[in-house]
Each structure stands twice: as structure tokens, then as C-alpha cells.
Amino acid sequence: MEDTSNIVRVTKVTKTFQLGKAEVHALKGVDLEVATGKYISIMGPSGSGKSTLFNMIGGLDKPTSGKVFIDEVDVAQLDAYELAWLRCRKIGYIFQTFNIIQVMTALENVTLPMIFGGMSNDAAVDKGFQLLELVGLGDRFQHKPFELSGGQQQRVAIARALANDPAIILADEPTGNLDLNTGEEIISLLKQLSQERNVTVISATHDIKMLNVSDQVVWIRDGRIDKIENREELSISVGQIDIRE
Amino acid sequence: MNNPSTSIQGKNGHHDVARQVALPFKKSVEIAFKSIRVRFFRSLITTMSLVLAISFLSFINVSTDVANGMLATHDSAFRQALIRSGYDLEPEENSVGNSPKQQWLVILSLLVCVVGIVNAQLMAVTERFREIGTMKCLGALDRFILRLFLIESGMQGVVGAGIGALAGGLCALANAVLRFGFNAITTVIWQDVAVSISTATGVGLMLSLVGVLYPAILAARMQPVEAMRVEH
After folding, report:
1. Which of A69, B5, B45, B155 is deepest in the core (most CB within 10 A)?
2. CATH code at A228?
3. A80 part of contact set with chain B, CB < 8 Å
């Protein structure tokens, strides 16, 4: 029996978009395997197909050809109920624009996926409190998103992503809208939580700071995977902006 | 190894309790209510057109009820007063209906109201695309979104139509008192008035739901990808 199974497997995936008369080949044949429990970063320039690949993995879009397997289940074969179940229970999403529902408090945002998953209100609220404590927002559970800073909103998003104990967290440019220090905090929070809970984190990003914590980095360019680097092979040095002492 | 009760196994599994995605009705009412409360001012403006149109409908109907009440007394003074105020009455006629002109006016005002509701709800869906897409990423089924919009619109409809119908009815009664004296309303059949006000409320609710149907279906069909990254 294998020690580590592949939680996500992408085989020969291509994706072509029809924009008016032109065809855009966003992905030109991608093969990728993600082992359970790892922290993967997908890096590449704008227009490289990073977010398209990301959408494939997250079950948000279907490939033109090729297959995407999540836990050895072909995502393209799922019907609407099963897709909804997948998004509710198996995958947690984190977005660049936080995407917290503005009309609900932090606690309500975190408990929403639990409600969809069929948890009772009381159990959901308890668990929501715990998760908010975990990300350091225990005293801000009643605040609405506009009362929270960007970093705090992203923390709420992380707590929400963990709501139903997912197997995978998909983070789309989680630090894109955050400054250097806040971004740093968010990245270490994600890494810490993923280790504690054995969650696979797949993040699509521009951010070099993400490289420090990744187990594997997938470089994507022009619709194809350029190379896959493991942590030992990476060599990065990151400067820091700070106040002169 | 994968725990079978927490993994998907293909097409024939979605009735299993362990794999259900649910939105309890009470919860959807709660979410709808909070959505309205947060956007209260906007809801107010949307509902205003409904209030006005329904109060017009109610006014016409209750005025007719009052006139019929007056005619039922066979009091000739009342009859004269009614004819002078514009009702067309043949000598043998003992009840009054709505003239075609009145009916047309009411139908037109209701149509304008529906168009206004459709427009406002389409705008709401466009504004809330990110919210809708996010909910879908959290596992909401299409029909949850549809349900949320219908409940929201239903709540606005009931309140708006209720207020409009009552206001219209009261205006009609006040108008009768001013024109024909207080005796005019003592003869009215209150059941008829109650029926008029209830039907006006019902019509308003129905218009509200009809108006939101198309935008809500659009919202429900929205793909979650639209909630994802903003394209640079």
C-alpha cells in the first residue's frame, strides 16, 4: 500500500477558450500529481494559464480534453449535487479578493459552509468560534467585513476555508491584495494550519515569499508546466522592507 | 486509505445522507432578511413603486365597494351624489363596476411596477455576483440561490403590497367621507373591503415574485468561476 496517495491528479489537460473568433489555448497539455498533505505553489507570469489550471483543480471549470482526478474521482463526471458536495466538504477556497460575504458578520461567514454541510446551528457556532480563535480573530466575531482590515478579512477566509475540515485548500493569490508583512503572516498561518491538520494546500501565486514554505513549486509558463522543483532544490533569498534602526 | 463515507463515489451516491448539501428553510429566511436589512434603503426604493401601484389598485377597488354599499341602501340622495361624482348609473342599475378606463389605468400602473421590479432585481444580481459565486464555491446548489432571491422578493412584496393595500383602502374611505359625508361609509360592506385589500396584497406579492423570477434564475445559473480572480 502506498504511503502517500495523490489527492489531485491532472492528466493531459488542455483548455481552449473561444473569445469571439479567436481561440485562446490557455492550457496545452498539463500533467500534474499532488501528494496528500503537501504545500504546493503554482507559479507563473500573468497569462500563463495559472488560474485556468487552478480552476480545473478546484472543480470550477471543465477541461476541453484530459482528466482531472480529485481523490481518484473524475471531476468532469460529477453532477451538480456531487460538485456542490465536493466544494462544500472536500475543498476550501481562498481568494485574492477575500470574497467574504459583506452582509454577514465574521462568525456567520465562517459558519455558512457548515450550514450547507448540514451541521446544526449550535454546533456550527461553536466550531466557528474555535476556528476564529485559531486564526487570531476570537474577539472580532461580530464584526462585518468592512470593519476588518485586509489581513483580518483573509484570516476570516482561511477560517471559513477550514470550516468543514477539507482535504484540500485552494488559495488563489492569497497575498495579492496584502502588504508584505501581512502577507508574510498569512503565509505562515496557512503553513502552520496545513501542517497541524494535514491539509493539502495548493496555491496559485506571484508571491516569492510563498516559496519559503512550499514543499513543491510548479512553474507554469505559456500553458505548459515548465518544471517542478522540490523544496531542497529551491534557493531563494528574500529582501525585507523595514524601518531603519 | 480513503474513508468511504466521506468520499464521492460517482453518480448514484447523491441521495446518501452523508453527502447531502442542505440549506434549511429557516436559515434561508434569516439570510434573506439580513440581506434586506443591510440594503434597506435600496429595498425601500424598490418596494416604493410596488406600494404606489398596489395602493392605486386598492383605492379603486375599495372606492367601488363604498359606492356599492351606498347603492345598496337605495337612498336616492346617495344615488344622486354618486352620479354627480362621475359614476355612470342607469336607472335600474344597482351596483357599480370598474369602467374600462379605470381598469386600463390600473393594469398600466401594475405593468410599470413589474418592469421596475425586474430592473431593480437585475441590478441587484449584477452587484451581488461575487457574493453568489462565493456561495456556490462554499457548496450552495443552484436552487439555494433561487430560493434566497425568491424569499427576499417575497418578503419585500408582502410588506410593500400590504402597506400599499392598506394605505389605498384608507385613502378610498377618507375620500368617500370627504365627498359624501360620514354616512357613506357606515353602509359599506366590510367583508368586501377586506376582500379588496387582501386581493390587492396578493396581487402585489405575485407581481413581486414574477418580477424577480428571471433575475433569480440568472443568478442561480451563475458559474462560480465568476467569483474568482479579477482579470488584470
Report:
1. B155
2. 3.40.50.300
3. yes
